[in-house]
Amino acid sequence: MEKLLLSEIASAINAETSHEAEITEICTDTRQLSKGCLFIALKGENFDAHDFVPKAFELGAAACITERKIDGCDCIIVDDCRKALRDIAYFYRNKFNLFLVGVTGSVGKTTTKEMIALALSSKLNTLKTQGNLNNEIGLPKTLFNLTSEHQAAVIEMGMSHFGEISRLTRTASPLSAGVITNIGFSHIENLKSQEGILKAKLEITEGMPENSPLVLNGDDKHLWEVKDKLNRKVYTYSIENSDADFRAENINEHDGITEFTAVYEGKRKDVILSAVGRHNVMNVLAAICIGRIAGIDDDLIINSFAKYQPDALRQNISVKKGQTVITDCYNASPDSMRASLSVLDGMKCSGRKIAVLGDMLEMGEMSEKLHRMVGEMAVKIKPDMIFCYGNDAQYIYDTVKKSGIDAFYSPDKKEIADAVSKYAKEDDVVLFKASRGMRLEEIISEVYDKEQ
Fold it and tell me: Which of 126, 152, 275, 359 keeps 20 to 30 A from 143, CA to CA?
């Protein structure tokens, strides 16, 4: 973060300060506090940082923003500390003239963000969202990492309720472009329907000037149907839809890479991606589109994707005990389950194909229906064995067993690990897929990292 005057910050949040100081960092956690920072006292369900304001001053905070007076502490008082954090981030973001992209969607937004960052970084000094800093606290922290050396930024935007994307996109505003990866079922417990999810995702346009284009998945029926109703330039990308602006043809997956031909703007470009999965081809197409909007040369964009490296918990392919292990334990929804099962189906092996599937969380009253849907997806690819772990995974198991495919179910993590250990052999391919909260990586560790 570049230095700000405390008086600048106070003005940005319509507050007053009794002294001047140079602020070198914005902090919301005293455990990470550095001398000279501005501490913002956020409140959560299980904590209230106002209790740590005296400690923040003891550790060297130059100032603190609070929602109430703290005895013995000279604080800047506001009505809402979370809004103050966003307003400061907006003020700071607008000190820089750069190409900034917002990315949201039910599934694939993190990987799409990574692909876009690769494309932009081929020419521009690019900041990207790190880890899971895509919410109303994390996004401002990402923006505070901007410096005058950055020429571009890719900002991921997550949400679980209406209004969240609106606040995020307005904080990062103005956006040079926006991307919506798809409309799935994630957080349907809160948003009630896919139409509700679509409405929430389209809030991204609220931080976009009228001349900023929106990039949409052309294979998603909800996004395709709405594209002509938006009062702005829209680009679409697709594998299946021949009317999309950016398309992929001749997709070939082998040896952990995917080769395909990208077709756009009257051109045909051969792409090599160091990952497998048709969903990753879609992510690349979105990145190519953004790269072209940013004015980057085709060859620079295309050559960047060979450098892609998947996260350890996101469809990471490794070899353990002579077995090919696909680790995809970061999140789960019907769409991402379909994508992972497709990767398993496309893997070539001399052994058997095994799926270890856990619960998809936050599916609400549709949970049984959606887990049975996943069971139907699994039946279509006909793996040799399916292990189901969790509470609602029993619906996957029921659906699979009725089809005649071998399956094993248990709500006990140790039982699943023992069963997988006994069944899986050298040369098999094993997929592990579930929501992050199921901590399926613990089963992987039990199966492969411990002596049996």
Answer: 275
- For residue 139, how many other CB atoms are within 10 A of its CB? 27
CB atoms within 10 A of CB 148: 10
How far is Cα 70 from Cα 190, in angstroms, rounded to an integer?
36
> Pairing mode, if any, of strands 323-328 and 246-254?
unpaired
One-letter amino acid for residue 306 of the chain: A
- List CB contacts of 127: < 8 A, sequence separation 6 or more: 142, 145, 146, 150, 152, 153, 154
How many angstroms separate the CA atoms of 271 and 253, rounded?
A: 12
**Nearest CA among 183, 133, 193 for reference residue 158:** 133
Backbone φ/ψ region at 315: left (φ over 0), alpha (ψ -120 to 50), beta: left
Burial category of 190 from C-beta neighbours within 10 Å (exposed 0-12, middle 13-18, buried 19 and up):
middle
Strand-strand pairing, 22-23 and 26-27: unpaired
d(CA 138, CA 434): 24
Could you report the per-residue pLDDT of 232-284, keeping only the tens digit for each? 999 999 999 999 999 999 999 887 889 999 999 999 999 999 888 888 999 99
pLDDT in tens, 215-237: 999 999 999 999 999 989 999 99
